[in-house]
Write a structure and sequence with these properties.
Blueprint (H helix, E strand, L loop, with lengths): L1 H16 L2 H9 L4 H7 L4 H4 L5 H6 L5 H5 L1 H22 L6 H29 L3 H33 L1 H12 L2 H7 L10 H36 L9 H24 L5 H4 L4 H10 L2 H12 L1 H16 L4 H26 L5 H23 L5 H29 L5 H21 L1 H22 L5 H5 L10
């Protein structure tokens, strides 16, 4: 549990550095609100993690995995990737080129997501039941939420004091803490004599992998930027209709494929495929109920994701300083989220998932409504603490319940791929819309934006009676 708390801490730090903290950094350099909204699309990488998650189930990292095993090998590679990407963001903290800023932000998002894939797969393998999941998820999210102090508060205080470069360097060092812990652990089969060789070859292989990943990311990014330029997309573009259209495509594709998937025998190429088999298994088990599940999971965390990137710019526009925001995101946010996470981790071992999910949705909605209330008040740091506390308590509670629920939907045979698919899809719609958040705020204002995001969280309660009647059919090819 201590290790999972540390892994959660290491994953939470970089996430805030390429989302909330980056939004404030771009705002400080005069970047338009609509463009800051576009940067939220960097957070789409975690939603697409199912694309490369099967690779983590199937392949091992050269060097590291020989001694530490497959899961820890990927964790160590991801740690090196996070450190290198954050170093790049620190050295380009002036944001003189938004394309370069985007490059390192994407790399940071990719390696952070890879860390989460490996950690989640290992967690589900070790703790498969609801009673076991509650405490270990709470430990992981305690670490993740504690990262808010270092990233959401510490980074802002450092940036206010000595600039963004120092802030990113400090967080890079803090995010690297699990690496020496993992390196010092016993080997997968106690072959301590091979530790040094494994570390040396693993680091060498990691340098090569990191370099190749950077080159590929630069090439893909260049193509995307040229395509956007050719399509005439700029800070004044209204991309919301296109985003909503993209959000419908996964549902249409799944609905079209379900009849064939349900009829597929265990020997079919579709179910035996290395790339598609884990995902086909999910739809085969739940049938058309999978569509209801996917609609629910894509909405449940909507409010939190929409508020993430624009809540801090809104608070800054209200007249609060970076230091005041940093203080609110320190002890207040930490204690509120720890209580929310701990309470949820305890209650899921005693309540039905239906009740736990309902309470989580209500509390998440209240957290978003708190920003609307804050906007109507005079600038007062105590009121900022109240709004921040409500937001973080609700998000901590809802996030914990949601992680446990998704973990219970997963087939342990495909732990890494299926959990990556579920969590990726859960945040695809919210993060697509978050990228258009700046445009939406420009059209309806901050108040209506946060009222809408809070309502989207609460409305998911109507799904719960249907979810309670959806059950998985047992595997016929175990």
């Amino acid at each position: 549990m201590a290790l999972y708390g540390l892994l959660g801490f290491a994953a939470g730090l970089p996430f805030y550095m390429f989302s909330t903290v980056l939004a404030l950094r771009l705002q400080a350099h005069g970047v338009a609100l609509a463009v800051i909204g576009f940067f939220a699309w960097v957070q789409l990488l975690p939603t697409l993690k199912f694309v490369w998650a099967p690779l983590l189930d199937r392949y091992a990292v050269p060097g590291f995995s020989r001694f530490y095993g497959k899961r820890r090998g990927w964790l160590m590679l991801a740690q090196l990737g996070i450190f290198a990407s954050m170093l790049g963001m620190a050295l380009t903290a002036g944001d003189g080129s938004l394309a370069v800023t985007a490059l390192f932000a994407v790399l940071l998002a990719f390696w952070t997501t890879t860390l989460e894939i490996a950690a989640d797969a290992w967690r589900i393998e070790l703790f498969p039941s609801q009673d076991e999941q509650g405490p270990i998820v709470a430990a992981n999210l305690w670490g993740y939420r504690s990262a808010m102090v270092a990233a959401g508060s510490g980074a802002l205080l450092l940036a206010d004091w000595s600039g963004w470069t120092l802030a990113y360097l400090a967080i890079a060092l803090a995010a690297f803490l699990p690496f020496p812990v993992l390196a010092a652990m016993r080997g997968a089969d106690d072959r301590d004599v091979e530790r040094v060789t494994s570390l040396a070859t693993g680091i060498l292989a990691s340098v090569i992998i990191l370099a190749l990943t950077t080159v590929v990311t630069m090439a893909v990014g260049w193509v995307i930027l040229r395509a956007a330029e050719g399509a005439g997309i700029d800070a004044g573009s209204n991309v919301t209709p296109w985003v909503l259209g993209l959000c419908m495509l996964p549902f249409l594709a799944m609905a079209a494929a379900l009849p064939r998937i349900r009829r597929a025998p265990p020997t079919s190429a579709l179910r035996r495929s290395v790339a598609l088999g884990p995902f086909v298994n999910f739809f085969w088990r739940f049938g058309f109920g999978a569509l209801v599940l996917m609609a629910f999971v894509s909405l449940y965390r909507m409010g939190d994701v929409l508020a993430l990137n624009l809540s801090k710019p809104m608070i800054k526009d209200l007249g609060y300083s970076l230091t005041q925001i940093g203080r609110a995101d320190s002890l207040v946010a930490l204690l509120s989220s720890i209580v929310g996470v701990g309470l949820a981790g305890w209650l899921v071992t005693r309540w039905s998932m239906t009740w736990a999910l309902a309470v989580g949705a209500l509390l998440a909605g209240i957290g978003n409504f708190a920003f609307v209330w804050l906007a109507q008040q005079p600038v007062d740091e105590v009121l900022l603490y109240v709004a921040t506390g409500l937001d973080q308590f609700g998000n901590g509670f809802a996030g914990t319940v949601f992680v446990v629920y998704l973990s219970l939907l997963v087939n342990p045979r495909f732990a890494g791929a299926q959990y990556a698919f579920l969590t990726g899809f859960a945040f695809m719609l919210p993060r697509l819309l978050a990228g258009a958040g700046g445009t939406i705020v420009g059209a309806i204002g901050y108040d209506n934006f946060f009222l809408l995001s809070g309502a989207l969280s609460v409305v998911t309660i109507v799904f719960l009676p249907a979810l309670a009647r959806i059950h998985s059919r047992p595997d016929d090819d175990a």
